[in-house]
Specification:
4 domains, alpha/beta, 25 helices, 5-stranded mixed β-sheet
Length: 618
């Protein structure tokens, strides 16, 4: 293929194409044409290639994906208008807007994001706010797909600012403020965060500002699978406690929830599903009487709302109590994703409702309901420990399902400990999977990021999380050492041929796995002289959703051992497993039947409690 060596003239045959491909369909810029500043012009000097499907594309689209391809940046006022919007101007606009106006604007855009609308559709919702020339510039800047006009975290930071500066009403005759200008000014402000610490990239010392910011942004923007979230909730809160009642670590979670909170788990689920469906499918503004259509005990719906909803006054108190500098601190909105506005309520974001009802946060409802005395704290600790344990049980169940489907051998923690560590002198991992020549070793943990780490504000807390995970890596290392010397004690067969070991940490509550965090963990493992040897692969970190992606693949697609093996030499080897599977390997995966059935139970609970609901209002 020969690249274009000079700009072609209009009508001239374009070279640089594969043999036999006609270039007449390619547009060449017309001489003398006028282009506005910032508009895209036809790019010249492009060399083309052919995909396996026969599609002719620029050569850049034939390269393997890289981690940076997963990153999209948000537009700032400086990029759109040529100069940044001063913070004082942002405050001026917010003072001329009612808090409910900003809340409504942000929640409507966040709803579009959570509905799965394309970035072009989300950005397009703001087209009328710009002059035609500015909009052409925005379209030019976002044309490649690497930039977005609307970024969810910018909207939430804007809402925090509005809670500090916007009033409940405006004086007559005062011109209204501009929400979009305030949003772009907020983006300008966020861009300056940590600008003096740019040299602190990936290192072995305490994480720098850039590292912490990437962890926070990845955690916030991580994908959320509704069926996985529902399935794990049903299994953890409703089914496992009955099936594992003889386990001393297991608590009757349903009974404890009702005793401490005052509503049943089913009533809690019904309200959560009703709020999520109404905000996602209709509008984020919902009439207060919408929940009267639920067949719940008298007062149950209001009691649940009391757990997840607060008014604008409480929103203001929170916004003024935290540091004025923009951070990833959204704790109030995560705990109370519904805002009480009198005769109606506003769901800030559907995804926050899903996390609030079906994630880890219901534990805090139990802990608060139990009280603060010593006995209550002890019961709360037991509930926390139980939830963590059952989350690990759920992940092990997923691994066992996927591995056995492909005919792989699976050994659980008890079998491993009995065969490889009968005296208890060493710790072992939770599960192993092998095919006779490759071993995958899984250590499952419910460790999760704390608030300071998620907000990107504490290097010490992030370092604590990484150090705690290295403690889990030690268990993987000790199990590999035992297998290298005493494998036959576990398999009952003599050791023959070479072996390769793939150590894997599984974090049940999710973890932002990216080139920053994965490299940091691998470096710390190397410094501790763990996972050494040519037969030991680099450490991998996965979550439950990624395991379910493998469980839901078609037959003939990679097994968990294949995926771990292939990823070691992939372009996305330092990215998370989901990116590698879906983007580089282009694995076809559907929700596993097991997961779909479990998620269906959550929907059935809501449907059983529902009469035809009242209409929401937009």
């Amino acid at each position: 293929m020969v690249p274009i060596r000079r700009p072609p003239r209009p009508g001239e045959t374009i070279t640089g194409l594969p043999p036999g491909v006609d270039g007449a369909f390619l547009t060449v810029g017309t001489e003398g044409a006028r282009y506005e500043p910032g508009e895209a012009v036809p790019r010249l000097g492009v060399t083309y290639g052919i995909r396996s499907s026969g599609l002719v594309v620029p050569m850049e689209y034939l390269r393997s994906p890289a981690p940076i391809d997963s990153i999209a940046t948000y537009l700032t006022g400086a990029q759109v208008f040529g100069q940044p919007i001063p913070p004082g101007l942002v405050v001026m606009h917010l003072r001329r807007l009612e808090l409910t106006e900003v809340l409504g604007a942000c929640s409507r855009l966040l709803r579009l994001v959570d509905r799965g609308s394309s970035p072009e559709q989300v950005d397009g919702a703001l087209e009328d706010a710009f002059q035609p020339q500015a909009w052409r510039r925005i379209r030019s800047l976002t044309a490649g797909g690497e930039r977005r006009l609307v970024a969810p975290h910018v909207l939430l930071v804007l809402l925090k600012h509005a809670a500090r500066f916007s009033g409940d009403c405006r004086l007559s005759g005062v011109a209204s403020g501009n929400v979009v200008a305030a949003m772009l000014g907020t983006a300008d402000d966020l861009e300056l965060l940590g600008g003096s610490d740019l040299d602190a990239v990936i290192g072995t010392g305490p994480p720098g500002v850039i590292e912490r910011e990437i962890v926070a942004t990845h955690h916030f923007h991580s994908e959320m699978d509704i069926r996985h979230t529902m399935a794990k909730f049903v299994r953890r809160w409703k089914q496992f406690p009955a099936e594992l009642a003889s386990d001393p670590r297991v608590v009757d979670l349903e009974a404890t929830f009702e005793q401490s909170v005052g509503v049943s788990v089913d009533e809690f689920v019904a309200v959560g599903m009703a709020l999520y469906a109404a905000s996602l499918m209709r509008q984020p503004v919902i009439r207060r009487d919408h929940l009267t259509g639920l067949r719940l005990r008298n007062g149950a719906a209001e009691r649940v709302l009391g757990l997840v909803m607060r008014g604008t006054a409480e929103l203001r108190v929170w916004a003024r109590s935290i540091n004025a500098a923009p951070t990833w601190e959204f704790s109030h909105l995560e705990r109370f994703p519904v805002v009480d506005c009198g005769d109606h309520m506003v769901v800030v974001r559907p995804r926050l409702v899903l996390q609030r009802f079906f994630g880890w946060l219901p534990f805090f409802d139990v802990a608060d309901g139990l009280g603060a005395d010593r006995a209550a704290r002890k019961r709360a600790d037991a509930v926390r420990s139980c939830l963590g344990h059952l989350g690990e049980v759920y992940v092990r169940e997923t691994l066992q399902q996927q591995s056995r489907r492909h005919g792989l051998r699976v050994f659980d923690e008890e079998q491993i400990r009995h065969a490889l560590n009968p005296t208890g002198g060493q710790r072992t991992c939770d599960l192993t999977v092998d095919d006779g020549r490759r071993w995958a070793l899984f250590e499952v943990t419910s460790s999760q990021l704390n608030r300071e780490t998620v907000a990107g504000t504490s290097a010490e807390r992030l370092e604590d999380v990484l150090s705690k995970l290295i403690g889990k890596v030690e268990q993987l290392n000790q199990t590999i050492d035992a297998l290298q010397h005493r494998e036959s004690g576990l398999t009952g067969r003599p050791i023959g041929g070479s072996r390769r070991y793939f150590p894997v940490l599984v974090l049940t509550e999710g973890f932002p796995v990216n080139p920053i965090t994965l490299t940091a963990l691998r470096q710390r493992a190397h410094e501790a002289q763990l996972l050494q040897g040519d037969d030991v692969a680099e450490l991998e970190v996965v979550d439950g959703v990624e395991l379910e992606v493998l469980e839901g693949t078609d037959f003939g697609e990679p097994t968990v051992l294949d995926a771990l093996d292939l990823k070691q030499h992939a372009g996305l080897r330092r990215s998370n497993m989901r990116d590698f599977l879906m983007r580089e390997r282009q694995v076809r995966s559907t929700t596993p039947d097991r997961v779909a059935r479990l998620a269906g139970i959550a929907f059935d609970i809501a449907l059983d409690a529902t009469q035809p609901p009242n209409d929401s209002v937009g």
